[in-house]
Q: What sequence folds into this?
């Protein structure tokens, strides 16, 4: 059977275009229950979540990123907080305190990124908007091991 992009007449509207008129499926994502964050900040950044109940590492592998502080890691931490607050607000849109915190961290992230890019160079392609020349390939790249370590 060749998939022509149109369903066969005998498939019906509840079937997809996969071979043999596969039934369409819906996913279910349960609502996160209210809980206090339990991971310490460095652990949360490495694990990818503040909440142990949401910590489902792929194939039981845990990020082994060093926890020493660097300007890039601090920028990543702010971005992590922004992402976590955004996910929380997706299910708690009426929490005005969380929204105010979210807005504060968005501002902090923008200011931190501006300072970082001015000092170390671009982190993403969009950071090249105000660049005087093409510096994307200049070493060290932000993710290079030991790059951007605080000068002692």
A:
């Amino acid at each position: 059977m060749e998939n022509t992009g149109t369903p066969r007449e005998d498939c019906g509207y509840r079937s997809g275009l996969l071979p043999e008129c596969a039934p369409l499926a819906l996913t279910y994502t349960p609502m996160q229950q209210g809980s206090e964050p339990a991971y310490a900040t460095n652990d949360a950044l490495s694990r990818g979540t503040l909440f142990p109940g949401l910590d489902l590492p792929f194939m039981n592998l845990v990020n082994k990123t060093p926890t020493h502080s660097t300007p890039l890691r601090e920028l990543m931490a702010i971005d992590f907080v922004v992402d976590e607050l955004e996910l929380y607000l997706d299910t708690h849109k009426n929490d005005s305190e969380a929204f105010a915190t979210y807005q504060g961290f968005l501002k902090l992230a923008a200011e931190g990124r501006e300072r970082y890019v001015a000092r170390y160079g671009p982190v993403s392609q969009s950071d090249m908007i105000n660049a005087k020349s093409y510096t994307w390939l200049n070493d060290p790249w932000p993710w290079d091991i030991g790059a951007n370590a605080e000068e002692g």
